[in-house]
Amino acid sequence: MNKVWSFLIKNAYLILFILIQGFCLSLTIRHNVYQNYVWFTSSTYAVGTIHDRISAAYEYLSLKQQNQVLQTENAVLRTALEEFRNSFIYESGRIEDTLLKQVYTYQEARVIHSTIHLQNNYLVIDKGEIHGLKPGMAVISPIGVAGIIKDVGSRYSTALSVIHSKFSISARPANAKNFGSLIWNGKNYRYAQLIDLPRQTRIRNGDTVVTDVRSLIFPEGIGVGIIKSYRTREPGDFIEAQIELFTDFSSIHQVYVIDFIDKKAIEDLKLLINEGK
Amino acid sequence: MKASDAMSWTVALVAALVLQVGVFDQIKLSGYINPQIVPALFLAAKLFLPKYLHLLLSFLTGLAIDWWYNTGGIYASALSMISFIPLERLLGLLVTSDLGIIRVSTVGFRRYFVYISISYVVFFAWLYVLDSMASIKFLVLGSKILYSTAISLLIVVPIEILLTPDATRVGKRRLK
């Protein structure tokens, strides 16, 4: 209290001046129509701007939370889309083996570590066994293919990323039926290679490459990248294409882990066929 | 504070107010340039009156002018502004004036002129900023301040010199 009192006494002249100026300003604003108008329009603008800034700051601080909510919502939507797609396909009578049952489930996850400069690059994600992850599940980013789950811990998992020398899945140009193998030659993390495409495949630079269901890992039609160039490999039976990947592994953060529910059943059938041979 | 100085300053203030509202208010060059002589009286008394009294008197006088002009608190604000800003200290007048009225005879013509010119610029700047509430263009504001200051000084400075018989001699001595 003494400090406040001594501060007031010490600055009494300044305080008196400020009070006088405040009083004069209020008289001026109240007394003159023009000043009144300018003051209230300016103060409304200023208050509005301050509210906007505060609101923007709050929104910025809650981005992480909002992002988490959106990811969860995305996973739910993708699952619902899958259900819808299957029921639609069944009704149109094109594929019978779905039996109106959901084929894939989606689960959101976060990449907590990744590499891009090695020959064998990995992703470490923040979901593990307790979240239902198993080796062999597909990992996609919001814009394209990202990798395949390799090792699963209780809470964390590692995934082979597309830019791993042992990564290989079936893929095809979106507007063609022929498929090839998507691999990485270890040179540039932005480019993968689509090899073993049959010579008769209709292919053009700029075409989108998508996943093929034969891989039994990824759902059909997940984006991989865009064809930048291609050439017929000697002796001339197959085409090899350079693919610019949709997923930028230098900034990958959000991913979805996809479980192909019928994978085991299909693999068992394939095993029976092989044993029958 | 000498009683005779206080008396003569009070008489001068009343006369200035009468002149202001009776004569100078009728002068409106270009529609807005209106000479002001009351600020000169308060500028002269900066070292002569105690600062609290000076601030309150300038505020009350400004309020009276505002009441007369019907302008809210614009003059009161501008007069209390020049009362508050210690321009006399910035110009080194405190050490030479010996706590008297700031006049040509006490500080010399050059110092007096610089002091009163800068003070008038501050006065008119604040007056027009409050009057226009920042919506005016910078060049227009600058020209209004400069013309108003010039026309006010054209009236105030000759009066001050006329009331100082030995002004020329004092000014020359101070300039040396």
TrEMBL record, chain A:
Alphabetized UniProt keyword annotations: Cell shape, Membrane, Transmembrane, Transmembrane helix
Superkingdom field:
Bacteria
The cross-references to Gene3D superfamilies, in alphabetical order and at most eight, read:
Rod shape-determining protein MreC, domain 1 (2.40.10.340), Rod shape-determining protein MreC, domain 2 (2.40.10.350)
Tell me where in this chain the Rod shape-determining protein MreC beta-barrel core domain is found: 111-258
Q: Where are the transmembrane segments?
A: 12-29
Q: Name one Pfam family in it.
A: MreC
Biological process terms in GO annotation: regulation of cell shape
CC per GO annotation: plasma membrane
In terms of PANTHER family, this protein maps to: CELL SHAPE-DETERMINING PROTEIN MREC
Which family does the similarity line name?
Belongs to the MreC family.
Protein name per its UniProtKB record? Cell shape-determining protein MreC
Q: Which organism is it from?
A: Schleiferia thermophila
TrEMBL record, chain B:
Please give the start and end residues of each transmembrane region: 6-25, 72-91, 112-130, 145-164
- On whether Membrane is a keyword of this UniProt record, the answer is yes
Q: Which domain of life is it from?
A: Bacteria
For this UniProt record, give its keywords in alphabetical order, as a comma-separated list: Membrane, Transmembrane, Transmembrane helix
Protein name, please? Rod shape-determining protein MreD
Which organism was this protein described from? Schleiferia thermophila
